[in-house]
Please model this.
Amino acid sequence: MSDLVNSSLRELSAALAAKKVSAVELATLFLDRIEKLNPALNAFIALDRDKTLTQARGTDAALAAGAGSTLTGIPLAHKDIFCTNGWRTSCGSKMLANFVSPYDAHVVEKLAAAGMVTLGKLNMDEFAMGSSNETSFFGPVKNPWDVSRVPGGSSGGSAAAIAARLTPAATGTDTGGSIRQPAALCGLTGLKPTYGVVSRYGMIAFASSLDQAGPMAKSAEDCALLLNAMAGFDPRDSTSLERSTEDYARDLEKPLAGLRIGLPKEFFSDGMDADVRAAVEVALAEYRTLGATTVEVQLPNSGLSVPAYYVIAPAEASSNLSRFDGVRYGYRAPEYADLTEMYSRSRAQGFGAEVKRRILIGTYVLSHGYYDAYYLQAQKIRRLIAADFAEAFKNCDVIMGPTSPSVAFGFGAKSADPVQMYLSDIYTISTNLAGLPGMSLPCGFGNNNMPVGLQIIGNWFGEAKMLNVAHQYQKATDWHMKFPEQMR
Amino acid sequence: MSLTLEDVTRIALLSRIDLSAAEREATRDQLNGILGFIEQLQAVDTTGIEPMAHAVDVVQRLRPDVVTETDRRADFQAVAPETEAGLYLVPRVVE
Model:
């Protein structure tokens, strides 16, 4: 049984098919680990053993009837940004601390239809605004490699839970790096698809033109199987793309001979810590051994991506979060004199400091007299950033670089200065602005034995290629199999 | 340019977020820090560049004008702070 804790999804699937283990036993194995290890990590913020085991029994029945798919009976957990019918869905906020969702997000619906069993809901930065999981109303998540360090954010609960092997897989969302950066800081594999590939229906909105859901797991192969279940057109999301169904695992086994890897000169200049650079360089050498060639490319406007993002994302957030008014759902202040005061007190008491800051900035950049100077200008720069990528992809198949400029930092190290925290997403934000797919995969360890992530950026709709490139590396290395000794 | 306390008060009102006097000062300083950071965008020449509102070019889809949702009013109102007879209750706005 205990070897199943570090098994791939295909291995779990085979064990279920061979009746070596039942879905109920598998769910119980992980629920018991959660009970034992989660108190030190704070990754899970909602658990319901009965509900989980009921779902597991249903998938055992499906498997017995021969009605299962590859993922049937395998447990996973959802970032608490996804509405999950009958589960408390808080988005890491006091605002929604009592919100039990009356419906399922598209992603939750699809993964349940594939037969995956929900273990619980995962902690996150409040409304996905943060890079360290320190903004959660439910307290920070600890990095399983060193509990004095952050797991990254905003999908920090998802990352910590997989790193500690409390779940084989999890959902995440990525608006500026929120899947890739925590995946890097916790030593796992995470993928943000091309914008529009996965439906946003039932995923609590932060910045709608940037938000995209994706899988987080141990390996690229696992992510491919999960993405197969998550992706697909959904008429309930107005920006969901009508594309024919793809098998994202179809190219996993293709050899890498002839692969052209673009290395943006801007990603390899200053700003990256020496330990991160060293691990990334070793990974690139491994790729050359596998038959790839590297070519320098240029993303001249990438330095503008963080400031452009911190105009666009707060602007969209200020609009999206106006729905939290204490009327239809969420927190309502206990005392108020009139309607305006009910709104402003409910929002003042229900939102945390970072969320308020972003709403205020967003309101300002959209307000009369500043719209052109800030918001429109940022959108023009967004086009320049996207055009840089289109140009770079003329000379390469994928782009590589570090996911994060440093390994996981300590609690409080960046929380006093918002701009310092924003800069931890310096390598990930440009892909969201351009709508491109991106991945992070473990490529070694840096200072204090903390994991380092290698970022792969694909061309638009290049998920299968990215997964191929990541999988071939993972066949040649075993960084993705490592997990903290203290979580054994 | 940097924000004054009056600016912060106005933005907070537009945002419907109540800020105490002490919070207003701290907020002003933090917002000015962020605005100072995004100020670098102003130096970029974007003449003739079309703003990019979205990651992909999509056109709003049309659908047949038919009922597709079932009535789940009770489920949705169960999560509301205050309801009565199927209505959401708020403080009186019309005297």
About this structure: The first strand of chain B starts at residue 83 and ends at 84.
